[in-house]
Amino acid sequence: MKLQNAQNALNSWFAQFEHRFEAAVPNIVAETATEYFKDRFRTQEWDGVPWQPLSPNYAAKKARGRNRILTRTGALLNSIRPSEVNRNRVVISGGNAKVPYARAHNEGLRITGVRNVKSFTNRNFMGKGKPVKIKAHKRQVNYQMPRRQFMGHSVRLNQILIDRLTRAFNQ
User: Fold this and answer.
1) Does 56 share its domain with 132?
2) Over the stretch 9-64, which tens digit does the pLDDT of each residue have?
């Protein structure tokens, strides 16, 4: 009888732990991964490999602040969020309707196609200081976007997750 009570107590303790484990792990994973992916914009690297720097011409015109890559408005950073969190699966997504370029930056895709250019006035045409009216036209685009990964499989993230989960369940 005493042995039966001890087994029941042990089984109930494990059942409590299992429920706590199922409830806590997905939330810890989602929070940690989201934080890690967003932090890549601050460190500007992926698993110790720094992102390719901006070209000097582009950086002079477009980068707000000093040497910030992919953080002009913060829309890409703010689009990273957990989209599915349950006991079987955790999905962190980046990009949305306002940020359709997220995948191109993360994976370094080739951008091709034809773009329409509206008519405009070039106020300093060929450096001569004279305004010239440019007609509307089409421009062929073929550009290889450099890969600046901020989401995906990461050895560092796995180690951070192991450390956080170990701390959470050793308390």
Assistant:
1) no
2) 656 655 666 666 777 888 999 999 999 999 999 999 999 899 998 888 777 776 66
The CB-based long-range contact list for 120-129 (8 Å cut-off, 24+ gap) reads: none
Q: Are residues 71 and 119 in the same domain?
A: no
Q: Which domain holds residue 91?
A: 2-109+145-169
Structural domain tally of the chain?
2
d(CA 24, CA 166): 12
Same domain for 95 and 124, yes or no, is no
| CA dihedral sign, ordered 149, 155, 160, 161 | positive
CA distances from 40 to 47, 66, 131 (A): 9, 16, 43
Is the same domain home to 126 and 157? no
pTM of the complete model beyond 0.70? yes
* One domain for residues 133 and 76: no
Helix (H) or strand (E) holding 120: strand 120-122
- Record the tokens describing residue 95, joined without a space: 């990009």
In this structure, is the dihedral angle defined by the CA atoms of residues 94, 99, 101 and 105, taken in order, positive or negative? Answer: negative
Three-state DSSP class for 17?
helix
Residues 6+ apart with CB under 8 A from 15: none
